[in-house]
Specification:
Layout: E1 5-9, H1 13-25, E2 29-34, E3 45-48, E4 51-54, H2 65-74, E5 77-78, E6 86-90, E7 93-97, E8 103-104, E9 113-117, E10 120-124, E11 127-130, H3 137-143, H4 145-160, H5 169-177, H6 179-185, H7 187-194, H8 204-209, H9 215-224, E12 245-249, H10 253-266, E13 270-273, E14 275-283, E15 286-294, E16 300-304, E17 307-310, H11 314-319, E18 321-322, H12 327-335, E19 336-348, H13 362-365, E20 370-373, E21 382-385, H14 386-389, E22 400-408, H15 413-416, H16 419-432, E23 441-458, H17 463-471, E24 476-478, H18 481-484, H19 490-506, H20 512-516
Parallel strand pairs: 1-2, 1-17, 2-13, 5-8, 10-20, 14-18, 17-24
Antiparallel strand pairs: 3-4, 6-7, 9-12, 10-11, 14-15, 15-16, 19-22, 19-23, 20-21, 21-22
Length: 527
């Protein structure tokens, strides 16, 4: 294996995890080619005048002890934040984190993981509801007796006569929550995110993102909270949407991936920025070399390698193969759909929410990481409060740093709108929703992210044929959200990359176990 090279396309969580793991566990040298000028992909952190934006929001938790251990090896947890020992299991071994010996001090070091509380709520009819809905007295009071009764009756009807087979995301959600709750709290938001009716989205989206969540699980979680338990940050027995604590890098998720990129360089690998992979040249059923364009100079060059790891979109990957795949495979790839994403970062003096919250009392009055917007008449789908992810994300602690998130399609009216018009839209909608007055806005910035969400419609129903063709290219591996066309969390992308390196290191030619990794299953690290 000495002197062999892996060409890694993309410096997001999957690509950088693959590069680090190759260097730690083999003598294969990775060269990471990144088209942008930053690391992290969707998990990068964008800085604007000292304020930091987490694109899409990234809670650092995992049901995989392997991923939890990887993160904490890279960045220690802050000292003094563990009231009890925190148990982590990794490859049949146990170790415990205790404070302060296992932690760092965020006042003295940036390379620290903060322990944060998860708070997300839904803005509906001018009121904030727990997300996911809890069975608290507050929720029942806000819903009212009549609506609560209708929700309960609808749920019982769905349990008695479930829709079989489930042909769409609507069927999936109605079966788990009842039609009334689905129409009030799921339908509008989901269709705003994807831009198509829920009846046109595959139920696989639900299986990928919220497979284990249902009213029954909400009931069980509510009862479980009444019992004392161990402070296990891996939270393996908890459904993703119910996890209440998470780790978070002091300076946002991009900080983790900058550290990973630095380790790649320190161990002898490379991360090259501004490099766009245009073609992958095949020979004898393998990738022989990639054709790369330097975006700064326009120069083109070729790189040979022994292994090729793609985190670029499957659509782009298939379009770049030389010779081209059969016409029906090309058609499936071209028919894949994506949802794009805009964040408008808005700096405000105060919120109208929480009775007039300011930077100083924000954590007590409005502790939310996210607020999901279920109100009609506005385009914003979700709002982040970056101060609550990490107080170090905002330059002036007296002010509040918000991220208004808009879902769109590349080339549509939102995507092509000017930055100034998008800033004005965000200010108007903050006031319309009674979140903050437009007059309190002090600054704003616009960040666009193409192909943020691989979609479960378009030609997705035929994706298996495309995957089979690409998996047949012996030394080509697809990992990551866009690389696998799956709506993954970053921990899933990381574990898929780790599993890929397991196979390469052990000389295992198969790829099925990489695809078997799923965000809502117990991970297969010991199988």
């Amino acid at each position: 294996m000495s002197g062999r090279t892996a060409i890694v396309i993309g410096a997001g969580p999957a690509g950088l995890t693959a590069a680090v793991e190759l260097l730690r566990r083999t003598d294969i040298r990775p060269i990471v080619l990144e088209a942008s000028e930053d690391v992290g992909g969707l998990s990068r952190t964008v800085e604007f005048k000292g304020n930091r934006i987490d694109i899409g929001g990234h809670r650092f938790f995992s049901k995989s002890d392997r991923v939890m251990g990887w993160w904490l090896d890279m960045m220690p947890m802050e000292a003094g934040k563990a009231e009890r020992e925190i148990l982590l299991r990794y490859q049949n071994r146990e170790h415990r984190l205790t404070a302060p010996a296992a932690g760092g001090d965020p006042r003295a070091s940036d390379a620290v993981m903060l322990l944060r509380r998860r708070v997300s709520r839904i803005l509906y009819r001018g009121r904030l509801f727990d997300y996911p809905l809890s069975l608290s007295a507050d929720t029942l009071l806000k819903l009212g007796l009549g609506r609560t009764a209708r929700i309960g009756a609808s749920y019982l009807a769905a349990m008695a006569r479930p829709i079989r087979p489930e042909r769409s995301l609507e069927d999936f959600l109605v079966n788990r929550f009842g039609r009334v709750l689905y129409e009030q709290f799921f339908k509008e938001y989901t269709e705003k995110v994807w831009g198509v009716p829920c009846t046109e989205i595959s139920p696989e989206w639900g299986a990928q993102r919220i497979k284990g969540l249902s009213i029954r699980k909400v009931l069980g979680h509510a009862l479980g909270r009444l019992r004392p338990g161990k402070a296990d940050l891996s939270q393996k027995g908890t459904e993703t949407s119910l996890i209440e604590r998470f780790l978070y890098p002091k300076l946002g998720p991009g900080q983790m991936w900058r550290l990973a990129a630095a380790e790649v360089a320190r161990r002898g690998g490379e991360v090259r920025f501004g490099q766009s992979v245009e073609r992958l040249h095949l020979a004898d059923g393998r990738v022989a070399e990639v054709e790369v364009r330097d975006l700064a100079t326009g120069d083109r060059y070729r790189l040979r390698g022994d292994w090729f790891v793609s985190t670029m979109s499957v659509q782009q990957l298939a379009a770049g193969l030389v010779p081209a795949p059969p016409a029906e495979i090309v058609a499936i790839a071209q028919g894949l759909r994506y949802r794009d994403f805009i964040t408008v970062g808005v700096l405000v003096d105060r919120l109208d929410l929480g009775g007039g919250a300011t930077g100083q009392d924000l954590a007590e009055r409005v502790p939310d990481n996210w607020i999901y917007v279920q109100e009609p008449g506005v385009k914003v789908g979700r709002m982040q409060i970056f101060n609550n992810w990490s107080p170090y994300m905002v330059a002036d602690p007296a002010r509040i740093w918000l991220g208004l998130e808009y879902f769109c399609r590349e080339g549509d009216a939102l995507w092509t709108a000017s930055d100034e018009s998008l800033k004005a839209l965000a200010a108007r909608e903050l006031e319309q929703l009674a979140i903050a007055r437009a007059a309190s806005v002090r600054d704003a910035v616009v960040v666009r992210m193409a192909k943020a969400y691989p979609a479960y419609f378009g030609s997705y129903g035929e994706f298996g044929r495309l995957r089979e063709y690409l998996d047949g290219i012996e030394n080509l591996y697809m990992v990551g959200r866009n690389g696998m066309h799956r709506y993954n969390n970053q921990d899933h992308s990381m574990l898929a990359a780790m599993t890929m390196v397991d196979n390469i290191a052990a000389g295992i030619p198969g790829k099925a176990n990489i695809w078997d990794v799923n965000t809502e299953q117990d991970y297969h690290e010991e199988k």
